[in-house]
Known about the structure:
Layout: H1 2-11, H2 14-35, H3 38-74, H4 78-110, H5 118-144, H6 149-154, H7 159-162, H8 169-185, H9 188-232, H10 236-272, H11 277-294, H12 297-311, H13 316-329, H14 332-348, H15 355-371, H16 378-389, H17 401-429
Amino acid sequence: MRGYGVHFMKKIPLHIRIFIGMFLGIVLGLVSIFLHWGPFISDWIKPFGTIFINLLKLIAIPLILVSLISGVSNLKDISKLSRIGGKTISFYLVTTVIAIIVGLIAVNTIKPGNFLSKEKQVELSEKYAKDVNLKVTDAQKLKESGPLQVIVDIVPENIFGSMGSNRNMLQVIFFAIMFGIALIMVPEQKGIYVKGFFDGVNEVILKIVDIVMHYSPVGVFALIGALIVDFAGDDPKQALELFRALGVYAITVLLSLAAMILVIYPLFMRMFTHIKYKQFLKGIIPAQIMAFSTSSSAATLPVTMECAEKNLGIKEEITSFVLPLGATINMDGTSIHQAVTAVFIAQAFGHDLTIADQLMIIFTATLSSIGAAAVPSAGLITLVIVLGAIGVSPEGLALIIAIDRPLDMCRTIVNVTGDTVVASIVATTEDGFRKEPAMN
């Protein structure tokens, strides 16, 4: 009987199992609020979510390093790598700028800052001042280091030190690309064993990904349940009051994110690929759910790559280059969040932004989103730089920290979707499909 149950669960698609885990986590979280189960959830449920996040972080850097080296070396010649790299970065920059413009249009139209009461601003500022100070300290280190420090930080001085933290993704990517290019340039007879080693390790890591993904429904269940308890505590009224106070701001962000998913990305797919957008969304649902659950493009990367290769049929040589790069430098959802939040805080503080200020938001949000780590809430750190560029006090972050995590979960869906859209476009222009994509 037990064996039948396990077999039955295996027959259920992974994304359905993840949905079930998410639903049960929501139910558990809501029940815990009313029954005051907060300590029990923190002690006995939340650790399983932490284990899941740690497993995803564990394989993130090895996956990026090995898959990029394998992917770059499979391109066989430098000209093809240059062509694919140029297309990838160009589309990433274009979608990022469009995302920021979408966010600015929404926030200037809805004006959510005008809906916040001064009393709530003071209350939230006192409650979250400590969190803001931590973010400000981190951001000041970035700001004081100079305008080109982002470029300097891409080049590691010690690759083993860089691999010690998921925040150093760009450094790992730089080394992996350089290693892959060198592997192409050496004589084939001398490089064949090195390439074979990395191809083999890549297969092993992908198997590890499969093992971790079997655990994902449990991890999502624990993450969602613990998040609701952490957010609301034992007082349902506190959660409702907070959502009412910042609801218009959240709606503005969500509408902007929805515009990318429902308008901009379908337009790009129609213009540059022959893939039906409904089929595309169906293929990447597991990655979107994982992005929502983890709030991390890097943690979701294994699932994103698996969806792109197995469900969309994109060749590994494309996914292993485009997607790891996108998980680090392509943050469309984060860009929207930075644009909307910067203007929202300015509105709440009574600042009238000029056209020059709006253009500065586009410029700084683009650069800071490229440098943002692909980890939860990294956008809060870089957002301080955007606020500083338009002369708004970073203390205003206290207004949005309370609901940042739920919005972070949503904007990570856009980040991951944007990465896969660009991968599909590059695959279309480079004959990068193992099978014929769904046609219109």
